[in-house]
Specification:
Layout: E1 3-8, H1 12-22, E2 27-33, H2 44-48, H3 61-67, E3 72-75, H4 81-93, E4 97-100, H5 113-126, E5 129-132, H6 143-148, E6 154-165, H7 171-176, H8 183-192, H9 200-210, E7 217-226, E8 231-232, E9 237-238, E10 243-254, E11 257-267, E12 274-282, E13 285-290, H10 295-311, E14 316-318
Parallel strand pairs: 1-2, 1-3, 3-4, 4-5, 5-14, 6-11
Antiparallel strand pairs: 6-12, 7-10, 8-9, 10-11, 12-13
Helix pairs in contact: 1-10, 4-5
C-alpha cells in the first residue's frame, strides 16, 4: 500500500520535492498546501510542470492535513525553526509524521531546545515522527562523515570542506549569500540572519556525534568572499572586488578540544567546487567528491527517499543519524 503524503510549500525546493516524490512508486501525493496566490487553486501538475495526481493546491492547512492523516507531510517553507514551529506542531497534532527541509530542525537541540522538547512531546503523544533533512545539513557534512566513521577505529576530529559555485544555484540562494551586496549590507544581513547559510552549526554537532564524539559547544564565523574578476549572477553582475558569497566556519568542541571543523564556501565563481570529508584518527580516512553533491536536487531526493524510512521510524523527534543507511 502506498504511503500517503501531503506537500506543504511549493517554492523552488518544494516543486523539486514534489517531482521526486512522484518518481517513488511507494508514495502517493494526496494533497498540496501553499499560500502563494499564484499557486492556490491550480492543479499540482500545472504548478510543478509534470504529470501528477488530480490534486488542487489549497491554502487551508486543515483541509490538506485532514486528507493526509496517518501519512507524512513533506514540509518546505522555512529555514528558521521558530518561524515554522506552528506549522510542524499543527501537522503532528493532526496525526501526520513530518519530513522538513527546515535547516535548524536538523539538530534543533542546539539553538532551540525548548521548541525541540515541545515538538518531541507532541510527536510522541500522537505516535508520529519528525525529521529535518536535506543535503546540507542532512547529508554532506554530517550523515556522510557518520557513515564513513563506521569503517574506521578511533576518530579524534571531523574535518570537512564544501565549496559551491553559486552560479549553478537559484537566485534566492545567490541573494542569501550576499552576492552583489556592499560591505555594510553584508554585515547587516549577517547580524539579522538574512545573509549566510543556515545549518552549518547543526552539521558540526551532528558530524561529531555521528562518529561517537561528545559536543558541549559550537561556534561559527561568517565572512564575505570577494570577486577576483567581474562575475555574473542570475540577472546581475558583481564587479571585481565586490562581494560574491560567503565563507563560513563552524567548530564543535568538547571540553575545549575541537572535535569538528567544517568550512563552507558558497560564492559566484567559486573555484574547484567539491566536497571533502576527512576523519582524523586511527586509521585516518579522506573522501573527496569532485564537483560536490548537487544542492537543490539532492535536497529533494533526500526528502523523497526518507518517506519510507520515516514511515517505519520510532515516534518522536529524530535526526538523520537515526535513519537506517540507504533508501
Amino acid at each position: 500500500m502506498a504511503i500517503q503524503v501531503v506537500l506543504m510549500g511549493l517554492g523552488a525546493i518544494g516543486r523539486l520535492i514534489a517531482r521526486a516524490a512522484l518518481a517513488k512508486p511507494e508514495v502517493e501525493i494526496v494533497a498540496a498546501l501553499d499560500l502563494d496566490p499564484s499557486r492556490v487553486g491550480r492543479k499540482l501538475g500545472d504548478v510543478i510542470d509534470a504529470p501528477a495526481p488530480d490534486v488542487v493546491i489549497t491554502p487551508d492547512a486543515n483541509v490538506a492535513l485532514g486528507r493526509g492523516k496517518g501519512g507524512i507531510l513533506l514540509h518546505a517553507t522555512g529555514s528558521r525553526l521558530d518561524g515554522v514551529e506552528g506549522e510542524l506542531a499543527q501537522a503532528l497534532t493532526a496525526g501526520l509524521s513530518v519530513i522538513s527541509t527546515c535547516e535548524e530542525l536538523a539538530y534543533p537541540w542546539l539553538r532551540h531546545p525548548e521548541i525541540a522538547e515541545r515538538l518531541d512531546r507532541i510527536a510522541e503523544k500522537r505516535k508520529v515522527s519528525l525529521l529535518g533533512t536535506g543535503v546540507n545539513p542532512g547529508f554532506v557534512l554530517d550523515r556522510l562523515p557518520a557513515t564513513l566513521g563506521s569503517v574506521v577505529g578511533r576518530v579524534d576530529r571531523v574535518q570537512a570542506l564544501r565549496i559551491v559555485d553559486a552560479r549553478t544555484r537559484r537566485l534566492q540562494l545567490q541573494r542569501k549569500i550576499g552576492a552583489g551586496m556592499n560591505e555594510e549590507e553584508f554585515d547587516r544581513g549577517v547580524d539579522d540572519g538574512t545573509v549566510g547559510h543556515i545549518g552549518l552549526m547543526e552539521s558540526a554537532a551532528l558530524a561529531a556525534l555521528g562518529v561517537g564524539l561528545e559536543v558541549d559547544e559550537v561556534d561559527e564565523s561568517i565572512d564575505p568572499v570577494e570577486a577576483d574578476e567581474d562575475v555574473s549572477g542570475e540577472g546581475f553582475t558583481v564587479p571585481k572586488g565586490g562581494i560574491v558569497g560567503v565563507h563560513q566556519v563552524a567548530r564543535a568542541f568538547h571540553e575545549g578540544k575541537e572535535v569538528a571543523h567544517l568550512e563552507l564556501t558558497i560564492a559566484l565563481g567559486a573555484p574547484d567546487p567539491r566536497d571533502e570529508i576527512e576523519l582524523v584518527g586511527d586509521p585516518g580516512l579522506k573522501c573527496v567528491i569532485p564537483g560536490g553533491v548537487p544542492g537543490d536536487r539532492a535536497t529533494a531526493w533526500s526528502v523523497a527517499h526518507a518517506v519510507p524510512l520515516v514511515a517505519g521510524a520510532e515516534p518522536g523527534l529524530i535526526t538523520v543519524l537515526d535513519l537506517p543507511a540507504g533508501r
